Amino acid sequence: MNVPYQDDPDYPKSLDNNDPMGHFRQRFFLKKDSIYMCGNSLGLATKDAEECVLEVMERWKDEGIKIWTVDDNKYYLYSRYLAKLMAPIVGADPDEIAIFGGTTINIHQGISTFYKPTKDKYKILVDDINFPTDRYAVDSQVMLQGYDPKDAVKVVKSKGKFMDEDDIVNAMTEDVALIFLPTVYYRSAQVLDMVKITKAAKERGILIGWDLCHGVGAIEINLKEIDADFAIWCTYKYLNGGPGSSAAIYVNRRHFKRLPGLAGWYGNKIETQFLLRQEFDHQQDANGWQIGTPNVLSMASLEGALKVINEAGVANMRKKSLHITGYLMYLIEKKLSNYGFTIGNLREDSKRGGHVCLEHDEGYRISIAMKKRGIVPDFRDPNVIRVTPTALYTSYEEVYRVVEILLDIVRTESYKEINKNRNYVV
Fold this sequence. Notes:
The chain is α/β, with parallel strands linked by helices. It folds into two domains: 11-30 and 314-417, Alpha-Beta Complex (Aspartate Aminotransferase, domain 1), CATH 3.90.1150.10; 50-311, Aspartate Aminotransferase, domain 2. The protein is 37% helix and 12% strand. The protein has helices at residues 11-17, 47-63, 70-73, 78-90, 103-114, 132-144, 149-152, 165-170, 194-203, 223-226, 296-312, 314-336, 363-372, 396-412; strands spanning 35-36, 97-99, 123-127, 153-156, 176-182, 207-211, 230-233, 248-251, 342-343, 356-359, 375-376, 378-380, 384-387. A hairpin with a 3-residue loop joins strand 12 (378-380) and strand 13 (384-387). Helix 4 runs parallel beside helix 11. The longest helix is centred in the C-terminal third of the chain and has 23 residues, at 314-336. The mean pLDDT is 97.
């Protein structure tokens, strides 16, 4: 944050004119008179994704069932193809990655594979501020093993809105069998030290998995260096894979011989898959954790998006993300701090993800007022407007305009015209 930003209206124009990432905006479908600040929840569509989806549609139209065998079985083996594009983004080998399902089903897959409780070692360690689907999955997996979550799920309490990594390490007692945590917190944007926590878990003989959903594509991740047992992530946020696009799982190669907790025919060895035997013949790499037939139309949009990200480079994306979010925080403090706004995320670059947590007691109504003015953020209870200048398609001038519009909203108190009743999706 030690960057000499300026609040001059011409300053963001100069930044945009000298932005080496600026040309990537042309690869996205941007709406006129709209400023998109919600890439932390759903990334914008790329033109590359559209091309890939249309290509699949043409293949389907022309080939029917033969789509599975065109282009050297590309779509039959689509997970393997996409894993090669995903590998440099998360720092893993392609055969340690499988693309399938959705975030929550992949959490179930990971937990059911690695959670093997014993009389003395039966607890799963979690936190109390993670996105709730992770906790729902953990609790249900514990119950499937016959345990009560109140006893078998060990919850590390946060300190306010942040987690203390030492508290997590200190909670790694002998009765803990498995740990499952996020790398970036959805509400506070806090980044956990995955290397430190994973190392501590391994020293204590505890298996550990990570939820990378709010981190992948936003921060640099090296799963080889982290050396966790497994990880899962969605692909529709910073990866821009499309609404509900297929999720991913990482299985450390030291576990390739484990059987998946949830077996399905697409985890069978491809050499024997169509022999259709009644006994599962496990493919001993991450592809063995696939369950059902590839969701090809969903995966096609991801293919196009991953090509853009690999061209840009995650390190370059992270560099711009830190700079442009730093600029946003500078403007918030300069222009909005006298109107009840505070910044709810940590300031250190290493400890914050890709979104800024703008807090205000009237956060919900202000977020709706922003949408009425053409800005697209999202809101998280109790008071957080999540604002995300995304490296690949947000300009500095847009950031400046967002703060100016926010200033007008609170000065005129136009948000007070908005009903306090919540929409289903915020």
